[in-house]
Amino acid sequence: MPARLRSLSLLSAILVLMLAVWLSACSSPAAAPAPAAQPTAAPPQAAAPTQAPAAKATEAPKATEAPKATEAPKAAATQAPTAAAKAAAGSPVTGGTLKLPLGQNVDLNPIGVRTIGADYLMSVMYDGLVQTSANWETVEPDLAEKWTISPDGTKYTFNLRKGVKWHDGQPFTAADVEFTYKTFVTKAVTSRFAQALFAIKGAKDFYEGTTDKVEGIKVVDDNTIEFTLTQPNSALLTTVLSLHSIIPKHVWQDVKPEELAKPGTWEKSQIGTGPFKWSKYEPDKFLELVRFDDAWQGKPYLDKVLFVRVGTTTDAQAIALEKGELDYATVPATEMDRLGKVASLTMGEKAIYNLRFFAVNVDKPYFKDKRVRQALAYGIDRVGLCEAVLLSVCQPTNTIAPSKGLMAANLPEYKYDPTKAAALLKEAGWPANQEIELSFYYNDQLSKDYIAAVQRQLDKIGMKAKVVQLDSSAVQAYYYQDRKFDIMYGGFGIAPDLNEFAQQFVSTATWPAGANATLYKNTRVDELFAKGIQVADPAERKKVYDEVQTILADELPWVPLHLLEITYGFNKRVQNADAIARNWNRPYQWNIEKVWVSDGK
Amino acid sequence: MARYILRRFLISIPILLGVTIVTFTFINLVPGDYIDTLINPELSSTTRADLEPLRQQLGLDKPAPVRYVLWLRELAAGNLGFSLSTRKPVTEEIGRRLGPTLKITATSLLFAILVGTLLGILSAMRPYSVLDLILTILGFTWVSIPVFFAAMAALYLLALKLPLFPVAGTGPAGQSDVPLHIQLYYLVLPAGILGLERVAAFMRFTRASMLEVLRQDYISVARAKGLQEWRIIARHAFRNAVLPLITIIGLSLPGLIGGAVIIESIFGWPGLGTLSLTAVTQRDYPIIMGVNFIGAVLVLGSNLLADVAYALADPRIRYE
Amino acid sequence: MTDISRPLPTAPAAPDAATAVPPRTATPREQFVRRFRRHKLAMFGFIVMVILVLAAIFAPLVAGQDPYADNLRLIRKAPQAGHILGTDGVGRDVWARLVYGTRVSLAVGLVSVSMYTLIGIVLGSLAGYYGGWVDNLIMRFTDIILCFPTFLLILTVVSIVSPSIFNVMAVIGAFGWPPMCRLVRGQFLSLRERDFILAAQSVGVPGGVIIRRHMLPNVTGPVAVSATLGLAGALLTEAGLSFLGLGVQVPEASWGNMLFGAMSISIIENMWWLWLPPGLMISLAVLAINFIGDGLRDALDPRMTLD
User: Fold this and answer.
1) pTM of the entire structure?
2) Which chain C residues touch A446 with a CB distance below 8 Å?
3) Interface contacts A/C by beta carbons within 8 Å
4) Neighbours of chain C (3+ CB pairs under 8 A)
5) What residue in C sits closest to B160 (Cα-Cα)?
6) Which among C73, C92, C265 has CB closest to A319?
C-alpha cells in the first residue's frame, strides 16, 4: 500500500473502531430485570371511597399555611368524559401511575446512613411510630395507635396498631420496633439517628458495646412497647421519633450491621408497611413501587408510584412537568407565570418552614457590639427584597421560629431604616475601611441576585462587603474549621420544635459536636434551652422559647430574613395530593394511598 | 517503531504513578471531606461527631499518605478501591456508566469528525465564497453558544414547542429493556447538541490545513495535469492535510470517557461526567482517583496512538 | 486505483518568504499591512475588536450608568427610556452590565488564550524541531499536564487563593497549552524532514531562525484556528464555571455569566433582552477574532493573492 494512502486507511480504521465502541455501548443489555410481581390491575370501582381508611381524618391546615393554589385559567381542561364525570363527582378512580422526580445519586436505606434528600421515598414504603401533622405542630398516630407518657416525662408507652402486615404478609409486632431502634443505635450501622436516641436509657452503653441490650427499650407484648428516657425530652416525638421508618426484624435480623451500612444492601428489595411496595429499581434511572393491597391505611387507588430520573436542573424538571413526563415538580419561582398558563397544570406555593438568615460571626472583634448586628437588621430591606428579588415566594420575619404557632409576640420589628442603621454603626465605632466577607453557598440565580442587592444595601449604611460564593461541600470547613466567615447567608429549619435551635445557639454546642458557628454565648439562653427540653406543658414551653426568641431578637447572632416558600406544579389529573407538595426533606405521611389520577393511567 | 512504542509504554508507568500522587494530593488540599458532605447545614439532626463511626469505618481517619498507599495496593491487586458513598467497587460504578457515556460521546465525536471534515473540505475548496462564509459564521456562532444554553433552547424548541423528542433519560421511564431504535431516539438531542458543538472545530481545522496544502505547488501541478478536482482533493490534498486532524482526534479520545457533565445533568443521563462531578462535590476520592486514572491511561494511550499515526501518515516523520 | 501507483509530486519546499517574493519596493511589513487591509473580513474583525477594546477601556463613558446600581422597582423590565436594553433580576441596567462585561470577558479570553498559545507554540516547536530526547522530555511533560483533571485543579487552586475569575483563567491558561503544543509539534515533525529545512540546516542557519522564519509560518493555519476556537472556549468555560458556582463572583458582570443567569425557559421565551445581547456579543467577538486570524494567515502567506 502506498505510504500516503495509509493515513486515510488509518483515519477510517479509527472511525470504524469508534463505530464499534458506539455500537457496543448501545447494545449493552440492561441488567436482566427480575420479573416484577405486578399486581393485576383492579377494575375501576365506583364505590371506592368506602375503602378509604377511617383512621385519620386529614386535618385542615391552618389558614396561614394553607397552600396558595393559583388555579390556571380553565381554558382547555379536556379529560376523558368518564374520568371527567367521576372527577366531577369526586369519586376516586383506581389504577394509574403517579410519576414523581427521583433525585440524583439517591441512597435508599431507611435507617439513616446517608439518606439526605431521599427521605420522601421512605414515607411511601414505610411507616414510623408517630408522624407530625401537616403543619408540623402536632403529633399524630402512625404505627402507634396511641401512647401514654408517664407524669415525670421519662417513660413512653406505645400501643401499636393491630393487624398491620408487612409487604411479605408477615405480621408487624413490637419486636420489629425494638429491632429497628436497636439497629439505629448499633455503632457499625453508622446511622445518623444514633446520637439523638441516646436520650433512651442504655442506648449509649449499647452503642459503645458495653452491653448487648438497650435497657430503656422494653417489649411488653406484641402490641405494646415502652421507651424509658434518661431525662424528660419534650421534643422526642416531634423531632426524633417522627423521623424514623420501622423496618422488619424477620428480614434484616441476620444481616451484619456493616452490611446494613452499605447502600447496595437496600437496592435489591425492601419490605415495609407503607401503602406501596418495592417493585423494580435501576440506579440513576427509576424506582418503581407498586400498590400494597393489604396496607393498613386501606387499599391505595394508584397502581404504581414511579420515581423517574429527569434532568437535575429545575428548568429541565419544569419541562418534564409541562410535557406530562412528571406529575409533580418543584419549579423556579420565575417560571410560575408561564406555567400558570399551561392548561394541564395546577401551580401552587407553600411554606416549607425554612428560615433564611444572616449568621454573624460574633467572635470577630468588629462584630462583638450588638449595635452592629442591629444595624444589619435595620439596614437590610427584608420586605422589599423578598417582594422584588424573590418574587414574594417568601415570608419576611423577625424571629428564628419557623412557623407562626411558635413565634413570640412583641419582638422588635427592625423596619427598614438605613439612616438608623448608619447611625447605629457610627455609634458602635464601625471602622469605615473594614471590608467584610458576605458568604453564601447557594447557586441559583435568585440567591445570587438577593446577595447582590444586599451588598448594595450594606454599602449604603457604610459597610463594605465582598461576596464569597462557596462550594456547598466546603461549608463545614469554611464555617467551622477555619472560622473565616464574617456574615453567612444560610438556611435552617424545617423544625417543628424550637429545641432544634439548641445546636445553633447553646455556647457549648461547638463544632464538631454542635453547630454553633457564630460562637454566640449567653448563659441565659443556655439555661432556657436546657429547661425547654424538659418542660412538658405546651404553654409553659412556649414561654421558655418566647424568652429565647426575645433575647436572640435583641442580640441578633442571626439576623432573621424570611421564611422560604417553594413553588410547585401538579398535573391536573392528580387528585387529593396536597400533602405531596410539602417539603420532601422530612418524612411525614403523604397519605399517598388517597391520591388518585383522574384518567386512571 | 516497535522499540519506540515499547519505550513509550515503559515510561508511562512512572508518569501514571506521578499523576496519581499529584491528583491525590490535590484532592486532599480541597477543603472538606466526604463526611462533611453528609452534613446538611440546614438541619440540626446531624453533626460531625455523629458521623465519627462512619469516618472510621471508611478509613478516613487515616492520614493521607497511608490512604494513598492503600489505594495503590488496591490498584496493584487489579481494582480501583471502593466508592465512599455507594460502597461498591469503583470499577463497577464506572462500568455501569461507561455505556451511557460512550453512547453520547462516541456518537457526537463520530458525527463531528464526519460532518466537520466534509464541510471543512467544502469550505477550503472555495475559500471566501458565500458557502465558506456561511459555514464560517454558522460554525462560529454555534461554538459560541454555551452548551447549557443550547441544551435548554433545544429542549424548549424540540421537546416542548414541537414535541419531537423526549425530555430526559436513556429510555421510557420504568422500562428496563429498551430496544435499539428507542435508545437512538432518546440519544438524538443530547448527542446532537454535543456533536454540533464539535463540528465547527473539525470544520475549521480541516479548512485551515487544506488551505495550507492546496496552495502547494504539487497541487498546481496536479491541476495542470488535468486531474479532476475531487481527485486532487481526495487523493492528494486531504492526505497531506490530515496531520492536525490526527492531533485533534487524538486529543478528543480521552474526552470519550470524560463525558459531558452539563449535557448529562440537563438530560438526566447516568454517565461518567455526572459521576465525576458528584464524586468531586462529595469528595468521594476513590471515584475521583479511579476516573482520573482511567482518563490518564487513555490520554497516554491516545497520544501514543496519535504519534504512531503521524509516522504512518507521513513516512518522513521519525522519532529516533 | 491506477493512478495511485504513479509517483506523486513531492511536496516542494515552501520558500522562505523573504527570498521568494519578487523584489518590490515595499518592505515585508508594508506588504503585510497592505494585504491585511485588503482582506475585507479581517478588517471587519479588526474594527469590531477595536470597538470592543475601546468599549472595555472607556466602559464608564460608554455604559453611561453604574452597572451595579440596583432598582427594586424595575426588576426584569423590557427596554425603555433610561434602560436601552432593559433591566435584570436586581433592576440593574443590562446595557451597562454588557459594557462592563466586555472588560471581564475580553480580559479572561485574551489572557488565557495568549498565555497558552505562547507556551504551546514555544514548547511544541522545540519538541518538534529538535526531536529526540528534547521531544521526549517535553511531550512526557505535556502528557502529565494533560492527565490532570481541570475541574479538580480549579477547585483546589481556588480554595488556596481566592475564587476570582482571573485566578481561574490563569489556571486554565497555565494548564491549557498541551493541545496547542501537540498540534505545533505534530506539524513540525513533518516539516523538519522537508528539503527546504534540510537545506537551511546544511548551510548552517541557526535552529532558532529556522523555527521562526521557515517553520512557524507553515503552521499558522492550525494555530490560528486553535487559538480562535480557544477564545470561544475560554468565554464559554467562564460561563460554564458559573454552572459549577466557580465563575465570576457577585456582583461582577461578564457575558458568560449574564447568559448563564438567563438560563430559564420563561426568560428565553419572554425576555430576549436578558440573553440575546450577551449571546450576540460572545458570537461577535469569536467571529471577529477568527476573521482576524484568517486575515493574518493570508497576509503572512506571500503566495496568496487577493488581486
Assistant:
1) 0.85
2) 89
3) 80
4) A, B
5) C265
6) C265
Q: Residue C303's pLDDT is what?
A: 56
d(CA B156, CA C282): 22
Q: How far apart are CA B255 and CA A456, in angstroms?
A: 42
Query: What residues in A contact C268, CB-CB < 8 Å?
Result: none
Residues on chain C touching A468 (C-beta within 8 angstroms): 162-163, 249
Query: Which chain A residues contact residue B281 at CB under 8 A?
Result: 471-473
Span between the terminal Cα atoms of chain A, in Å: 63
Shortest distance, CA C140 to any CA of chain A (angstroms):
23
pLDDT for res C8: 35
Residue of A nearest to B182 (CA): A26
A515–B242: do the CB atoms touch at under 8 Å? no
> Coil, strand, or helix at residue A308?
strand
Give the pLDDT confidence score for residue A582 in this predicted structure.
Answer: 63
| Alpha-carbon distance C35 to nearest alpha carbon in chain A (angstroms) | 35
Residue A497 touches partner B, C-beta closer than 8 Å: no
Quote the pLDDT of residue A339. 93
**Taking CB atoms and an 8 Å cutoff, what residues of chain A touch C68?**
452, 456
Distance from C-alpha of B320 to C-alpha of B305, rounded to nearest angstrom: 17
Residues of A in contact with B113 (CB under 8 A): 15
Domains of chain B: 2-76 (no CATH), 95-313 (1.10.3720.10)
**Torsion sign, CA atoms C238, C242, C245, C251:** positive
A341 touching B (Cβ < 8 Å): no
The three-state (H, E, C) secondary structure of chain B, written as one string: CHHHHHHHHHHHHHHHHHHHHHHHHHHHHCCCCHHHHCCCCCCCCCCHHHHHHHHHHCCCCCCHHHHHHHHHHHHHCCCCCECCCCCCEHHHHHHHHHHHHHHHHHHHHHHHHHHHHHHHHHHHHCCCCHHHHHHHHHHHHHHCCCHHHHHHHHHHHHHHHCCCCCCCCCCCCCCCCCCHHHHHHHHHHHHHHHHHHHHHHHHHHHHHHHHHHHCCHHHHHHHHCCCCHHHHHHHHHHHHCHHHHHHHHHHHCCHHHHCCHHHHHHCCCCCHHHHHHHHHHCCCHHHHHHHHHHHHHHHHHHHHHHHHHHHHHCCCCCCC
pLDDT band at C134 (very low <50, low <70, confident <90, very high): very high
Summarize the confidence of residues A412-436 as an average pLDDT.
94
Residue type, A110: P
Summarize pLDDT for C4-41 with one digit per residue, the tens.
Answer: 333 333 333 344 444 444 445 667 778 778 888 888 88
Among A30, A311, A515, the residue with its CB nearest the CB of B267 is: A311
Distance, in Å, from the CA atom of C165 to the CA atom of C112, rounded to the nearest integer, reads: 11
Q: What is the mean pLDDT of chain C?
A: 82
Chain B: list its partners (3+ Cβ pairs within 8 Å): A, C
Q: What are phi and psi of A40, to 5 degrees?
A: -70, 135
What's the whole-number average pLDDT of chain B? 87
Strongest mean pLDDT among A36-40, A562-566, B222-226, C167-171: A562-566
